[in-house]
From TrEMBL:
Gene name tied to this protein: LOC107808536
Domain of life per record: Eukaryota
Protein name per its UniProtKB record: Tetraspanin-8-like
PANTHER family from the UniProt entry: TETRASPANIN-8-RELATED
Keyword list, A-Z: Membrane, Transmembrane, Transmembrane helix
Database matches in PROSITE patterns: TM4_1
């Protein structure tokens, strides 16, 4: 007699199996179409994720639908480890993104970002990989809209709501007190300050700007903080789903053992 829990596990894993195919295809496509180092960096994790989902789904399908108990046991073990890993990552994500926020500047529509305000763990990770991140930020052309807005008046620019990356990477720090010419063109004046190292790192060259500034790193961390918090919330939802599937899988495993015992002792 076919049990409901076995059918549910089989159906759920058929769905995830079908989902894994476009994920793998996307990774393969990216490996062939990638033009930048950032895109190439993503291809292997995407393919690995797709293959992992595919293999786990196959184990769930075969184990539940064909009553292969040992394979269903492997499936449940992987599911348990995945639940544990996601739980730990969710807690970790909330902890490391708890520190840091943009500083509101009087009379400005944008905020200023300080690298030292954020989690030490995140700071170290960004510092260690900054050369690659720096290249990715330049390739992404986050400052392009400001470069194209060269006719923007100072009052209009100061009212703009810039993203964290645009504020940190595309203009000099407010501490520098540079004179505004255009969104990406600023000049030093006798009243300008160079106490902040970012002031000497700034360049009007569109390829340099403030990509080497601490404020640019801080803008990236603020972006990461927002993204990680969203991911953590989604993880909670996904964890609930995985726990439900795991519970159904445990019922299917118990059914397999009972059926095997019934066949062994007629």
């Amino acid at each position: 007699m076919v049990r409901c829990s076995n059918n549910l596990v089989g159906i759920l894993n058929i769905v995830t199996f079908l989902i894994s195919i476009p994920i793998i295809a996307g990774g393969v496509w990216l490996s062939r179409q990638a033009n930048t180092e950032c895109e190439r960096f993503l291809e292997k994790p995407i393919i690995a994720l797709g293959v992992f989902i595919l293999l786990v789904s196959l184990a769930g399908i075969i184990g539940s639908c064909f009553r292969v108990s040992w394979l269903l046991w492997v499936y449940l073990l992987v599911m348990f480890l995945l639940i544990l890993l996601l739980f730990c990552f969710t807690i970790f994500a909330f902890v490391v993104t708890n520190k840091g926020a943009g500083e509101v500047i009087s009379g400005k529509g944008y905020k200023e970002y300080r690298f030292g305000d954020y989690s030490n763990w995140l700071q170290k990770r960004v510092d260690n990989h900054w050369s690659r991140i720096h290249s990715c930020l330049q390739d992404s052309k986050i400052c392009q809209s400001l470069i194209e807005g060269s006719n923007t008046k100072a009052d209009d620019f100061f009212k703009k709501h810039l993203s964290a990356l645009q504020s940190g990477c595309c203009k000099p720090s407010n501490d520098c007190n540079f004179e505004y010419v255009s969104p990406t063109n600023w000049t030093r004046t006798p009243s300008s300050s160079l106490d902040n190292p970012d002031c000497t790192a700034w360049s009007n060259d569109p390829k340099i700007l403030c990509y080497g500034c601490q404020s640019c790193k801080a803008g990236l961390l603020d972006n990461l903080k927002s993204d990680w918090k969203r991911v953590a919330v989604l993880n909670i939802i996904f964890l609930v789903f995985l726990i439900v599937v795991y519970s159904i899988g445990c019922c299917a495993f118990r059914n397999n053992r009972e059926d095997n015992a019934w066949k062994r002792y007629p």
